[in-house]
Amino acid sequence: MSCDFLARAVPGVQKLSPYVPGKPVDELARELNLDPVGIVKLASNENPLGPSPKALEAIRAELAELTRYPDGNGFELKRKLAARCGVQPAQVTLGNGSNDILDLVARAFLAPGLNAVFSQYAFAVYPIATQAVGAEGKVVPAQGYGHDLEAMLAAIDANTRVVFIANPNNPTGTWFGPQALAEFLARVPGNVLVVLDEAYIEYAEGDELPDGLNYLAQYPNLLVSRTFSKAYGLASLRVGYGVSSAQVADVLNRVRQPFNVNSLALAAACAALDDADYLAASRRVNDAGMAQLEQGFRALGLSWIPSRGNFIAVDFGRDAAPINRALLQDGVIVRPVAGYGMPTFLRVSIGTEQENARFLTALTKVLARG
Ligand SMILES: Cc1ncc(COP(=O)(O)O)c(C=O)c1O
């Protein structure tokens, strides 16, 4: 007897659309019969530098231990992160990517009848994590393309348990400053958890963005999430972390899978934290690449949303889908953001100088065709 298992799924899951990742290089090569070597992927906000040599060395040293479960408490990485962040290890939660942290928050704090507040154009995982546990996502219209923190405050009601905010935000790259964050945190009810998603913060350090960690002591309802996927160049290993009050960390630990971060990821993340040169190079290449793309867009008469991430959303003022298709034909993968309600934009991750140049050359050709 056949069964409609979609109808059997919990209501939130029935209405979910799966997360759409950037197209993998091999997939495009297969689809269009292209040589993968010539394909440039600027679609998933990955680090174009390749992994840190120190991280690779740490992975190699760990390989002989693959028959063993990883340290489920991530003792060494938590110790290092705590020292770096100026908190206690008990305040650190490790995740299988920072996505895992977002998911743990949803599973621990949200349920049917409760809601999470987030912005229009917010990272796609916030609605997915919220809906998956049957809670409501309250989407607050953006201001320009950035978070309207005032309107987000107004959206908080008696059933709100979580507010998700990314600074800088993906896919828009928009950001807010320290004063805006301080005012926001001062006004959010103390029983609502604020998840400040700083996946891209290392690209903006020293900029006009606040460091969320500075507010932890004052706000026990704050959780700062960060990742090793971007500036630390370890996206494939899946390792991220949350820093919060020890009590919030304890709650998340109750729903965490026992071995959610694997041993190679733990070792590589520890090593990556010590590789200051790699981090500085990530930042340098990103700054230069951002300037290169902005200059290219300016030359093509295109507008874009100023970004503090490792990506930039460029506006074509018309449906960007045909432009995306033509770029794919040319072996260049960027990210369509129509699913975010931005159909005239493409989001381009910052690559190496050569990758950016290859993208700009392809784009110039595509636009010349009209
Ligand atoms: C804003 C934001 N938060 C979180 C993540 C999750 O990254 P990861 O799970 O690789 O740490 C991403 C990834 O693109 C992101 O853009």
From TrEMBL:
Pfam families: Aminotran_1_2. Residues 39-363 form the Aminotransferase class I/classII large domain. GO terms for molecular function: histidinol-phosphate transaminase activity; pyridoxal phosphate binding. Gene3D superfamilies: Aspartate Aminotransferase, domain 1, Type I PLP-dependent aspartate aminotransferase-like (Major domain). It catalyses: L-histidinol phosphate + 2-oxoglutarate = 3-(imidazol-4-yl)-2-oxopropyl phosphate + L-glutamate. Its cofactor is pyridoxal 5'-phosphate. Its EC number is 2.6.1.9. The keyword Amino-acid biosynthesis applies. Pathway: Amino-acid biosynthesis; L-histidine biosynthesis; L-histidine from 5-phospho-alpha-D-ribose 1-diphosphate: step 7/9. The keyword tRNA-binding does not apply. It is an enzyme of class 2 (transferase). InterPro entries: Aminotrans_II_pyridoxalP_BS, Aminotransferase_I/II_large, HisP_aminotrans, HistidinolP_aminotransfase, PyrdxlP-dep_Trfase, PyrdxlP-dep_Trfase_major, PyrdxlP-dep_Trfase_small. The modification N6-(pyridoxal phosphate)lysine is found at residue 230. Homodimer. Belongs to the class-II pyridoxal-phosphate-dependent aminotransferase family. Histidinol-phosphate aminotransferase subfamily. This is Histidinol-phosphate aminotransferase. It comes from Pseudomonas cavernae.
